[in-house]
Amino acid sequence: MSIELEYGEVSAIDHPTCRIRVRLDDRDGVQSYWLNVPQRNTQGTQRRPLMPELGEQVAVLLNADGVGGVCLGGVYSTAEPPPVVDENTDYVRFSDGTVSTYDRAAGVMTLDCVGALKVKCGRGITVEAGEAVVVKAPSATLDVAQVTLNGDLLVNGYLDVNGDISAVGTVMDAGGNSNHHKH
Fold first, then answer.
1. CA count, 13 A, side-chain hemisphere, 67
2. Are 35 and 60 in contact (CB under 8 A)?
3. pTM across the whole model
């Protein structure tokens, strides 16, 4: 049985069965039968099937009559080159514009999300950094029962407290007033 390597464009996708049909340019645009798309994991560790998109250029292995075969995966071309060619960069761009990048040489991971980012965990979350952590936002809300701060707190701006303040030790303002003064 002879097997042929061919290239074409994805013309139909069947997500539940992980199969595609391909328009074959070398066969005058004829559409292939349904071809399986191999997946990284199918038992134990499982993930959403990684499927090519409609119109994507793919390489396929077909038997001589073009009835049976398998999709090998998408292929870049001069018309549609790879978005990143740096061997030290892992890059994923989703169709909505969200980009995940890891630059191995610089040791920097970036997630540029066009929508919301949600992190949910059934247990604790620990964030450790070897340098300062900066959070930039128009506002932030901590919706927690108690916050414990181990270290100094510096507030550059207005502090508004809606409730009582309890302090152990001396409370001093910049003018030298303390909690021991009399009126």
1. 2
2. yes
3. 0.65
Q: Residue 101: what residue type?
A: T
1 — pLDDT class (breaks 50, 70, 90): low
b/e map 146-178, b = 16+ CB within 10 Å: eeeeeeeeeeeeeeeeeeeeeeeeeeeeeeeee
Write the DSSP string, 55-124.
T-EEEEEEETTSSSEEEEEE---SSS--S---TTEEEEE-TTS-EEEEETTTTEEEEE-SS------SS-
- Pairing of the two strands 57-63 and 89-93: unpaired
Which pLDDT tens digit goes with each residue over 122-164?
A: 999 999 999 999 999 999 999 999 999 999 999 999 989 999 9
Its sign, for the CA torsion 170, 174, 176, 178, is: negative
**Rounded Cα–Cα distance for residues 13 and 35 (Å):** 10
Q: Which residues contact 41 (CB under 8 A, 6 or more apart)?
A: 47
Yes or no: say if 71 and 62 are a contact pair by the CB < 8 Å rule. Answer: no
CA distances, 25 to each of 34, 45, 48, 60 (Å):
16, 37, 29, 12
